[in-house]
Structures are given as C-alpha cells and as structure tokens.
Amino acid sequence: MKISIAVVSENKKDFLDLLLLGDEQEDMIDRYLERGELFVLSERGGRAAICVCVVTDEGNGLFEIKNLATDARYQGLGYGSLMVRHVCAQYMGKGTDMLVGTGESPRTLNFYRRCGFSYSHRLKDFFINNYRHPIVEDGVVLTDMIYLKKALRSSLSSCFATACPILWRVRR
Asked: How far apart are CA 71 and CA 94, in angstroms?
C-alpha cells in the first residue's frame, strides 16, 4: 500500500472519529485542535484516514504531540511509528524537543520509548482533574499524565536514523 501524509488546515473536525481514539473527550480535543498542526496519513488516492497526529508549538523550542491515533483496523502495522518519525522529522531544525503526554499504560509508554522518547516529568492527577469519567487503557485506570521527551536533532545522520533506519544501516 502506498501512503501519503498531509497537513490538514481546514475542516479538522472531519477527523473527529479518529481523534477520539487518541483522546476520548471532545472538549479536550477542542483545547488544542485549532492551534495545532493536524497530520493525516492515508492511502495514496484513498479518502479515508488511517492515522492522525496533532502537534502544537508550546514555545521555547518545544513541540508536543497532543493526539496520535490509528484506525483500529490498521493498528500494530507500523503506521503510528511512521507518523511519529514523520512529525519529528518535520520539526527538526524548528525546535529542540518533541514532547508527548500519555497515561501510565505500559503498552503506550513502550510504544513511545521504541520511538526514541524518554521520561521527562509527570502531571499528578491530570486525568482525574480534566476528564468527566475515568479513562481506562489496557485495564489501567489513568490518573497521572506521564510526559516523555525526544530531542529534535537537525544533523543529517540523526535525520536518517530517525526517518529511515534501514537505509541508514545500509549506508553506514
């Protein structure tokens, strides 16, 4: 399958069904959707989104992945990882770090660690204080927001290592 990733600047709410997979409460999505950049991964020539990602500029060289969601039919196939690599590559040279905040689900934390993120800090009781109902992910009731960080390096070698590990190994 040939895919493309595009930035969508209008009618962002058209992707609400997919965005709700990454953030269950619409009013929370409303806090960042319009000020963020929405990336949409889809099959070339296809109309349906496979994966979406919203990135915001938090100032002082920090960017944050606010929402990352992959259609359930395509989960586990590498589209989320591809999207993370793509957005990190897009922001190289524009800032110093990419942040992501998530719950304490081991599966999600391991996903971001595999994408090169490491622990940054914790916001105590974030999910309790900001959501109307308990958020449960993989059987874990989420309470604290765990922030992970990844350096955005602009060197050619880190760009290859991040965006295309197979090509990088071959050319080393």
From this structure: 29
